[in-house]
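Try this one yourself first.
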């Protein structure tokens, strides 16, 4: 059986490691590093080294949207029974789907499941919204957005310690388990693909780095979730001091304490000897433990106040952008509720 994996991210490397030895991967399809810079791909990984290390065939493509004639020729030169998608956040064109002998298998989910949470950034959204669980599905890819027949669905839970990286690790483990089960029980599994109810479909809008600005008028738990959702390999949450001083925040801890002095939301109450920042929030404080000042030779001081961009206004901007580009895609109610 000729099984290929197409990917641009580190998740494919972990997926290969998690797959059962009974499932033999024939080759990897990756993307040139130069294209990564153009497309701003978070968590990008060049698969050439892992392919060489595991003696796998490697096909390198030049265009993320698979619109290059040269790339198309490369694909037509290989015989593929099953194509596994692992971190390729672009639609697979119909010509590619038709070229695969049996099925293109994708993986998608959300806190509401695959049908009600189609689209972009599902794990980021789940952590931002403080969801407790995630429903992950493998499905037969068609030309639509996460609309193919469902092969299997499983659930994992979030803890208060999970960030976007650990969420991806959990997804990888469950994805590998479902793939193992699928290929080991191929004959019976192929008979039980389930169509999705198109009437129930709703979509999660795409997030951009500019959508990650802190709103210090929120509670500490919300702000912690916001930071965790945008941590590495994503661009990080951003807080603004003034028009030319930006700080990237990578890690933080909700910090409850009563102090005599009253502080404004966003105000730096303390800077500790290790450089950690204690910043006032709506209900308590946030201890910022990993951050980067994006201006050389600038030093933060106590009582400086970070600006806030209202969270609901950021959500409205994201919704507006989505509606303009995809007017026919109904936005998830959970996202719409955040704009109020």
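Now uncover the answer:
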């Amino acid at each position: 059986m000729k099984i290929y994996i197409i990917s641009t991210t580190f998740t494919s490397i972990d997926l290969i490691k998690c797959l059962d030895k009974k499932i033999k991967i024939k080759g990897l399809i990756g993307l040139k590093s130069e294209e990564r810079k153009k497309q701003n791909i978070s968590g990008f990984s060049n698969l050439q080294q892992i392919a060489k290390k595991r003696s796998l065939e490697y096909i390198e493509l030049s265009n993320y949207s698979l619109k290059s004639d040269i790339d198309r020729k490369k694909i037509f030169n290989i015989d593929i029974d099953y194509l596994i998608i692992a971190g390729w956040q672009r639609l697979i064109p119909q010509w590619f789907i038709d070229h695969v002998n049996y099925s293109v298998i994708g993986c998608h989910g959300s806190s509401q499941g695959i049908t009600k949470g189609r689209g972009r950034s599902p794990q980021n959204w789940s952590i931002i919204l403080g969801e407790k669980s995630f429903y992950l599905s493998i499905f037969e890819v068609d030309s639509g957005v996460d609309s193919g027949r469902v092969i299997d669905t499983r659930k994992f839970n979030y803890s208060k310690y999970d960030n976007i990286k650990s969420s991806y690790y959990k997804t990888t483990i469950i994805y590998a388990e479902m793939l193992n089960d699928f290929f080991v029980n191929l004959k019976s599994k192929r008979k039980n693909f389930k169509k999705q109810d198109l009437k129930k479909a709703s979509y999660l809008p795409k997030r951009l780095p500019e959508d990650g600005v802190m709103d210090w008028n929120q509670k500490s738990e919300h702000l912690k979730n916001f930071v965790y959702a945008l941590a590495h390999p994503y661009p990080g949450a951003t807080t603004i001091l003034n028009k030319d001083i930006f700080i990237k925040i990578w890690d933080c801890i909700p910090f409850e304490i009563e102090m005599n002095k009253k502080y404004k939301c966003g105000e730096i109450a303390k800077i500790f000897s290790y450089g950690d920042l204690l910043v006032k929030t709506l209900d308590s404080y946030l201890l910022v433990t990993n951050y980067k000042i994006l201006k050389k030779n600038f030093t933060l001081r106590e009582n400086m106040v970070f600006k806030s961009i209202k969270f609901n206004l950021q959500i409205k901007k994201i919704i507006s952008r989505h509606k303009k580009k995809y007017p026919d895609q109904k936005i998830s109610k959970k996202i719409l509720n955040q704009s109020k």
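Discussion: The chain has eleven helices and 14 strands. Residues 164-184 form the longest helix (21 residues).
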